[in-house]
Amino acid sequence: MDDVRTAGRGIVAATAKIEARGVQVHYGTTHALKDVDVSILDHAVTAFIGPSGCGKSTFLRCLNRMNDTIASCRVTGKITLDGEDIYAPKVDPVQLRAKVGMVFQKPNPFPKSIYENVAYGPKIHGLTRNKGELDQIVEASLRKAALWAEVKDRLDSPGTGLSGGQQQRLCIARAIATGPEVLLMDEPCSALDPIATAQVEELIDELRSSFSVVIVTHSMQQAARVSQKTAFFHLGHLVEYGETAEIFTNPKDPRTEAYITGRIG
């Protein structure tokens, strides 16, 4: 499916990277997500917004099968990545998560060196043949995460010794080191100060040239700043999805307008 995305930086043709059709999620007897249909574009940032408990993080975790780790969770419907069903029996969730990386709300570097944090994924997935190739991946990932200049002289230092914003950028470097095609971010700035938040937001805008980026955020201002597409979730339903500027200035559904103007949420 072809689409066109607009950002303040021009109009670019884009295609759907992920397609979700009729997705339902149950946690035991709780019906958490109801009949979600959406197409997520390649080389664009898609923001999921909505009140707490509306299903946006639940849906994000469907996209790399993180919900598989919850015994009571059942996902039905169809989600495809480049046309391939990610819930097909032949799909290895571990390999899927190398393709669909994830960055969590709270920076969670491993208790290892900066170098080893980034090298971990390529090592376990067998992506390199020697130390030289691994060094190249570590440097390239840290450069993409806008962290290389700050840490290149202390790669053996603990990742946990970095500032909060640096730790989150390290986690982004770790996520992209396996060469993913999609990057999922679950409120990546909620634990950061305004300066670190601005650095991560700038990084997100740069990353969309290489990845399809999906971000869950409670900040409508952040969604407006970083995304080209926005999806509004409410009470387990995907209420509205479209161009970010359109969602915020001319929403079609009264529930979207009520949320954006602060009447619900």
UniProtKB/TrEMBL annotation:
Domain ABC transporter, chain residue ranges per copy: 18-260
GO annotation terms (biological process): phosphate ion transmembrane transport
InterPro entries: AAA+_ATPase, ABC_transporter-like_ATP-bd, ABC_transporter-like_CS, P-loop_NTPase, PstB-like
GO cellular component terms attached to this protein's record: membrane
Single Gene Ontology MF annotation: ATP hydrolysis activity
UniProt xrefs under Pfam families: ABC_tran
CDD domains: ABC_PstB_phosphate_transporter
Name of the protein in question: Phosphate ABC transporter ATP-binding protein
